[in-house]
Amino acid sequence: MNLDSAEIAVLVASVVAIIAILWYFFGEREKVAAGLSDTGVQQIKVTVKGGYSPDVIVVKQGVPVRLDFYRDETASCTEQVIFGDFGIARDLPAFQTTPIEFTPDKAGEFTFACGMNMVRGKLVVER
Ligand SMILES: [Cu+2]
C-alpha cells in the first residue's frame, strides 16, 4: 500500500487526536497534596475555571483543612461548590477567593462538584 503525503498527514493527525482524547479521559489527573500552614491547617488554593485545578486534593484525616477556592470565571456552572459527604455547599463569587474550612473526620475518596454535578474534583482523605 502506497500512501501519499496528504494521506500520511491525515493518518498522523488522526493518531494524535485519538491519543489526546484518551489522555483527556484516562490520563492522570492533577493530584496535589495540601500544604501544612504554621497554624497546623492543611491549606491549598484551588482555581475554578471550567474545572478545578488541582482537581485531586490529598489531605490527612483529622487535621483541619482550608481550601481557598479562587473562581476565575463568571460562567454560572461553577457558581457553587458542593462537598456532599461533608454537608458543605458554598457559593463562589466570581474573581474572589472563598475559603472552605472543615476537618475531614473520615478517610476515603470524596467527590466535590459544582451545583449541577458537572464539574468535579476529588478530595482524597488519607488516614
Ligand atoms: Cu455546573
Description of the structure:
- The chain is of the alpha/beta class and 127 residues long.
- The chain has one domain (31-126): Immunoglobulin-like, CATH 2.60.40.420.
- The protein is built from one helix and eleven strands, in the order H-E-E-E-E-E-E-E-E-E-E-E.
- It has one helix spanning 5-26, and strands at residues 31-33, 35-36, 42-48, 52-53, 56-60, 65-71, 80-83, 88-91, 97-102, 108-114, 120-126.
- Strand 7 and strand 8 form a beta hairpin.
- The chain is elongated.
- The model has no long low-confidence stretch (mean pLDDT 90).
In short:
The protein is of the alpha/beta class. It has one helix and eleven strands; from the N terminus they run H-E-E-E-E-E-E-E-E-E-E-E.
